[in-house]
Amino acid sequence: MKDIFSFRIYSSTNDLPLEWDNLTSKNIFLTKEYLSILEKAAPTNMVCHFIGIFKGEELVGTSLSQYINLSKVNSLGDRDQCFKTLIKNFLFKKLISNVLIIGNNMLTGQNCYCFSSAISEKEGLIQLNNAVKELTIQFKKQNIKIHLTVFKDFLVTDCNTFKIPEFKRYYHFNTQPNMIFNIKESWHSIDDYISNLNKKYRDQYKRARKKSESIEKRKLSLTEISEYHSEINELYLNVAKNAPFNTFYLCEKHFEVFKQKLHDNFLFYGYFFDGKLIGFNTLIKNGEDIDTYFLGYDDKHQRDKMLYLNMLYDMISFSIKKKFKRIIFARTALEIKSSVGAIPIEMNGLICHENYFLNLLMAKSFTYFEPKTEWKQRNPFNNI
Fold this sequence. Notes:
CATH class of the largest domain: Alpha Beta
Order of helices and strands: EHHEEHEEHEEEHHEHHHEEEHHEHEEHH
Helix content: 25-40%
Radius of gyration: 21 Å
Shape: globular
Number of strands: 15
Structural class: alpha+beta
Distance between the termini: 53 Å
Strand content: 25-35%
Number of helices: 14
CATH superfamily of the largest domain: Gcn5-related N-acetyltransferase (GNAT)
């Protein structure tokens, strides 16, 4: 007898099956605790749903969907207001403003789904495709027409699973790689890391640390995050609005809710100069990995104090000391991350436009909106 699989879509974490976390325990970003953060403090232009996949009445798969309304943000950033950018923004709003993502657009990596051994990955993807159809219908009833559907982020080898009829219309794409920092077993402190650097990058480390001698770094509690929330938001926006591409902006209470829900699994570090908050970074503990999250800084101090580079070194120092195996540095700032030892891992996704003819042009239009990033990979280590 053929197994009968089905899916259910939830809009509240309160409705999730009791056994949900039994399936997601290896990835914090699919647990109820994390999903409740999205439920309470997602960006204002984002609506999240949670997908359960069942074999009969047994929960065998979990996933996350995010609807993003790009018309509510200046997706291409504030730094370039030339005619070409204005045209791109116009096309965004008319043709691809309503995006349905299966996965997490706020993170980098395979945080899309989790399946148990009771369901094959192929069958799980078929059910997720069915869920996409149902979500599209639900949004249509709200007068929202989904333009684009995206599945993200997967390793190249993982994408082979999508080679089934249900995903024939999807265009396979890759954007900036995920920068991964692997921690050697022989490293027990930051000194071990430094000893493996070649002279050029040991000098870079020493220069950066000297620049930051006047900065006080402090781990902030929930009370302090709340106290500094205005300054934090200003520093975050200073970085976010200068990015070449944005699909959302965090709400002001986002980090407070994060700390409330994840407690010690969410770390918030503030950087102070003369008693003033000039920067911050955030980390999330995820099993043997440390995921870097959002950060912010004042431009002047970033240049004078080499603040961003010092943040990277602080993340490395913490992760070595606490015996994590990898740091997920995610996308952006690829070259400087490679200069501290992170390596690029190609990530792929699938994208499909609801309009048949526009979908045929997906390959060309995707590279127009997401041009290839030119950068030079560094190797700071002594032949390792």
